[in-house]
Design goal:
The protein is of the alpha+beta class. The protein has a single domain, classed as D-Maltodextrin-Binding Protein, domain 2 (3-Layer(aba) Sandwich). The protein has helices at about 5-15, 15-25, 85-90, 130-135, 140-150, 155-175, 185-220, and strands at about 30-35, 40-45, 95-100, 115-120, 125-130, 180. The protein is globular, with a radius of gyration of 20 Å.
Length: about 220
């Protein structure tokens, strides 16, 4: 749904109450919200399928959105993070979805030359939580110590600001390492959002009324 870390942050904090409510149903107390840098797609080459692509002279068009392959065996799959480099090196995998901030420390720039900057923020939010029963067992003054520490260290704002800063730094660094950054055109982002709605229906069948309410809140927070 989101196309920048700032947009993702705005929606997340507007939905804080909803997240707290959902976590409470699982016996968890929401203490703070944090995040990772946004997620991107690393590519071995401009066109993942190796076929012709109109407009190859324009790098913006190289990051076109690609729908899932009709053969279910070729849909997205999970792979252990430690196996990503070798999978790229052996060309067994052409487009891993991970944070671009991993490209330098994990040496992905050696085996993948393109980064599609889709700002995939779908898995980029984390919560710091406490077991509700354990929290309730703490004396009130100790509960307050924890809450004051989160506030005094400015934990949430620092986490989000750091993630945004990491994204900004890596965009400057990756070209120095020989990688080409591709920013999909707005039209492609719109196509991606439209195509993703099919997955929303699947998710809603699993999450029921709570999922429907959360989805509506997210869309409202984003002005969509």
């Amino acid at each position: 749904m989101t196309s920048s870390m700032e947009e993702h942050k705005k929606a997340a904090f507007q939905m804080r109450g909803f997240y707290g409510e959902m976590l409470a149903k699982k016996g968890l107390k929401l203490i703070a919200m944090s995040t990772w840098p946004s997620q991107q797609i690393l590519l071995l080459r401009a066109d993942p399928d190796g076929g012709g692509l109109e407009g190859q002279e324009d790098p913006r068009l190289r990051g076109r959105f690609r729908e899932p392959h009709p053969d279910p065996r070729r849909r997205a799959v999970n792979i252990a993070f430690g196996e990503v480099y070798s999978a790229l090196e052996k060309k067994r995998w052409t487009g891993p979805w991970t944070s671009a901030t991993n490209a330098e420390p994990m040496k992905f720039f050696e085996v993948a030359k393109y980064v599609d900057y889709w700002y995939l923020a779908g898995a980029a939010q984390e919560w710091i939580v406490a077991n509700q029963k354990s929290w309730d067992a703490l004396p009130a003054d100790l509960q307050q110590v924890v809450l004051d520490a989160v506030k005094e260290t400015n934990l949430e704002e620092k986490e989000w600001s750091d993630a945004i800063a990491f994204d900004e730094r890596v965009r400057k660094r990756l070209p120095e390492l020989g990688m080409t950054i591709v920013d999909p055109p707005k039209e492609e982002l719109a196509k991606a959002r439209q195509a993703a709605k099919a997955a929303w229906d699947t998710w809603l069948t699993r999450t029921g009324a709570d999922g429907k309410r959360g989805l509506e809140m997210a869309l409202k927070a984003l002005g969509r």
